[in-house]
Amino acid sequence: MYRFLLSRQWVILTLVALILIPTMIRLGFWQMHRYEERSARNQLVADALDAKPMPVEKLTSPGHTVTTKERYRTVTARGRFDSEREIVVRRRVNADEEVGFHVLTPLVLTDGKVLLVNRGWIPADGPSQTAFPKVPAAPSGTVTVTGRLMPDETTEASGIKNLKGLPDRQVMLINSEQEAARLDARVLGGYVVLTAPEPKGDTPELIGKPGNENAPLNYAYALQWWLFAAGVPVGWWILARREARDRGVGSAVVEESTPAGV
């Protein structure tokens, strides 16, 4: 009854099923690996955001590379803003997906070192974004700021190309080494996303907290792939049984319609 399994059609179908099963199992493990990675990153972010604030110079220094564990840590710094040498970061969006700039202002610390502070988002003056925008003034005098420590931006991590020939005082990426050369100063590695003091009046829009990656979605995808893998042999067996049944019914009909003695 099952000799049809040796036909070309069924051999191909069986081979496809045998290939699909391990492939789907591997895809399930890949999604589970992504789930574990995202869960670990989410936990690192949560731990960093919940940690007690500390002076910025306890976590970074000139030439320091901000690590994954240091990222998003809340830090404090005291100094004065050097508004005359602030720059803007192009093609940044706010919570409403509006394109504008991030305002990057050097904060000169009491010991002379410089901390790059991202004061927040401002809208672009026009579609060309070639002219330096109108930037709300930074607080004057000595101030204490609080913010989230961030690593230097790179094209590899952000996908943003570091274009050349930009308008004056405009950059694509925030990079402490590049700013150290421009400012001719000792610039602390990484930068800080300002969280306090709260904006008042016409000031840049603060950048919100980082959101969690959707790790449970990868977990659901892993289960889905494994269910698909389990369903392949079940589907193959159902199709084979149906084919055998149809062939058996067809043979019985032929036998009944054949005259006796023929």
Automatic annotation (TrEMBL):
This is SURF1-like protein. It is found in: Cell membrane; Membrane. Pfam families: SURF1 (PF02104). Keywords: Cell membrane, Membrane, Transmembrane, Transmembrane helix. It comes from Streptomyces lanatus. It is a multi-pass membrane protein. Belongs to the SURF1 family. PROSITE patterns: SURF1 (PS50895). The chain crosses the membrane at residues 12-32, 219-239.
